[in-house]
Structure formats: structure tokens, C-alpha cells
Specification:
Order of helices and strands: EHEHHEEEEHEHEHEEHHEEEHH
Distance between the termini: 56 Å
CATH superfamily of the largest domain: Periplasmic binding protein-like II
Helix content: 25-40%
CATH class of the largest domain: Alpha Beta
Cofactor: dipyrromethane
Largest sheet: 5 strands, mixed
Strand content: 15-25%
Protein name: Hydroxymethylbilane synthase
Shape: globular
Function: Tetrapolymerization of the monopyrrole PBG into the hydroxymethylbilane pre-uroporphyrinogen in several discrete steps.
CATH architecture of the largest domain: 3-Layer(aba) Sandwich
Number of helices: 10
Number of strands: 13
Number of domains: 3
Subunit structure: Monomer.
Strand order of the largest sheet: 2-1-3-10-4
Radius of gyration: 19 Å
GO biological process, one term: heme biosynthetic process
Structural class: alpha/beta
Length: about 290
């Protein structure tokens, strides 16, 4: 009898909820891994959330790693690859603490740690103050309740997975509010030569989410963006047509570019790359360099 599949995950409540959902579909046992991001949320790039999990994969300590797709860097470790993506839940950002962005008074303090969210908030409301706010979902909601800020921005997907949709005041939708690439999707990483783990991961796989994620990651890669970039990308597939919106902006919200494109669902990588090239021609590179 073969050993149970070992599924690596961070130890936060959200990460455990996500990995538990995966484990119910692919089988196996959870293995908690402490990442650099758990130890120091203020430092590093996206690899601070994924590096320790990748290390455990390389060492054979786990067979699959579960990631929030928005946290996965463009370059993966040697011999590793993304082998599945789960069905996407609502990718929107949400405002907690107010019934709408317009309802907040001038000078209101809105907490977020994401540069993309900062740029988008200031593009929509240049009279508010966007302040650095770190911590897991519960920590951020507690800081909001304690009055450290007037409102916070979180991913609806995380609140849904934690059964905390009661905290949502409003969804942030509109021209500039394009979610992060991969937001709302979980992705599974494995050793490329591990046939058993890859086959198991396919039990949680969704082809539509995979196509959208592929296009979004191609956009980010073409723009040369990382977690320090104010970039959003969101693709949708309907009736065989893959459509995509993208945002790139200055950190202070003073300038931004929003573009959209549609293409063949059979070549999502090409669609994301083409949209990225168009945005570079329109000046996205200069905005992101600020």
C-alpha cells in the first residue's frame, strides 16, 4: 500500500482551509510549512510565501504544495511546475468597514499592504489616505475593529473560504479595480517527475481556471512585474472566447493604464503576452518603474 500523499501548506487559517479543500478532493494528509512571509511579512517578494514550500518539494518532504495563485512568482524552482488550478471563486477585492468607497469621508484611512490596491484606491479617491496594513485576515479585521483604520481592502475569495463574508461592506468594481493575476484561484505545484502527485492534483483541476491563470501569468511576465508592481490582470472564458482586462498604475494613483483584449481560448499565453506588449507600448513600463 502506497504512502499517503503529503500536501504542503502554510499554517495560517486561510491556507489550512484552502489546503483542506484540496485534500478532500485529491486525498492525502496536510503538512504545515513555515514560510519566510510568516516570519516577516514586511520583507521579500512573492517567494517569501512559496520558497519554503518549494524547498520541501525539492527535498521530498512533501508531494504537492498548495498556493494562492496570486502569490506564485513567475519563475519556479528547478524541476518544479504548476500541475493544476482549482475552479475560481469570485476574484473581486472588497471593502470592509464601509458600505461603499464613496461613503468614506475625505481623509479616511484605508489599510492595505498591496501596491496594486493602493494605486487603484488613490486612482478612484485621491482624497483618502492609504496606509500600510499587514497581517493575516483575522489580524486585519481586528485592526479595523480596533479603529486603527477606517476601512480595509481584502480579497473576497479569502473571506469566502473562511466563511467571513459578513465582513464585506462593498465589492470594489469599476474601471480601475482589476484584481491581481491569479486572485481567487488555488494552484498546485509538484515535482515534474512525480507522476503520482500530478495525477492526484488533476482531481482538483479546472480547465477554465487554468486557461485564465495562464493568460494572467503571461501578462505579468511580459510586463516584468512582481509583488512590488501596481499591476492587475483578470481573464474570463465564455463561449470559447477568452477575454482579459489589465491595469498598470503609478503607486500614487496619479496615472494609470487600463486595457482589455480577447483571443483564442486555446492559446491563453499568447493573449496575455499580447496584452502586456500593448500596455508596454502605451507606457506601462514607465509607470511601473516609478
Amino acid at each position: 500500500m502506497s504512502e499517503p500523499l503529503r500536501i504542503g501548506t502554510r499554517g495560517s487559517a486561510l491556507a489550512l482551509a484552502q489546503a483542506g479543500w484540496v485534500a478532500e478532493r485529491v486525498g492525502g494528509e496536510l503538512v504545515e510549512i513555515t514560510t519566510a512571509g510568516d516570519l516577516n511579512r514586511a520583507a521579500g517578494d512573492k517567494s517569501r510565501w512559496t520558497g519554503a514550500l518549494e524547498g520541501a518539494l525539492v527535498l521530498g518532504e512533501i508531494d504537492l504544495a498548495v498556493h494562492s495563485a496570486k502569490d506564485v512568482p513567475g519563475e519556479l524552482g528547478d524541476g518544479l511546475g504548476l500541475v493544476a488550478a482549482t475552479g475560481r471563486v469570485d476574484a473581486a477585492d472588497v471593502l470592509c468597514g464601509a458600505e461603499s468607497l464613496d461613503a468614506l469621508p475625505a481623509g479616511a484611512r484605508i489599510g492595505t499592504s498591496a501596491l496594486r490596491r493602493r494605486a487603484q484606491l488613490l486612482a478612484a479617491r485621491d482624497d483618502v489616505e492609504v496606509v500600510e496594513l499587514r497581517g493575516n485576515v483575522d489580524t486585519r479585521l481586528r485592526k479595523l475593529a480596533d479603529g486603527e483604520v477606517d476601512a480595509i481592502v481584502l480579497a473576497r475569495a479569502g473571506l469566502e473560504r473562511l466563511d467571513r463574508l459578513d465582513a464585506v461592506g462593498a465589492e470594489l468594481r469599476g474601471e480601475v479595480f482589476v484584481p491581481a493575476a491569479g486572485q481567487g484561484v488555488l494552484t498546485l505545484e509538484a515535482r515534474l517527475d512525480d507522476v503520482r502527485a500530478t495525477a492526484a492534483a488533476r482531481l482538483a483541476h479546472d480547465d477554465v481556471a487554468w486557461a485564465c491563470l495562464t493568460a494572467e501569468r503571461a501578462l505579468v511576465r511580459t510586463l516584468g512585474a512582481d509583488c512590488h508592481s501596481a499591476v492587475g490582470g483578470h481573464a474570463e472564458l465564455a463561449d470559447g472566447v477568452l477575454s482579459m482586462r489589465a491595469f498598470a498604475g503609478a503607486p500614487d494613483g496619479s496615472e494609470w493604464i487600463v486595457d482589455e483584449a480577447a483571443g483564442d481560448a486555446d492559446d491563453p499565453d499568447a493573449l496575455g503576452a499580447e496584452l502586456g506588449r500593448r500596455m508596454l507600448v502605451a507606457g506601462a513600463g514607465e509607470l511601473l518603474a516609478r
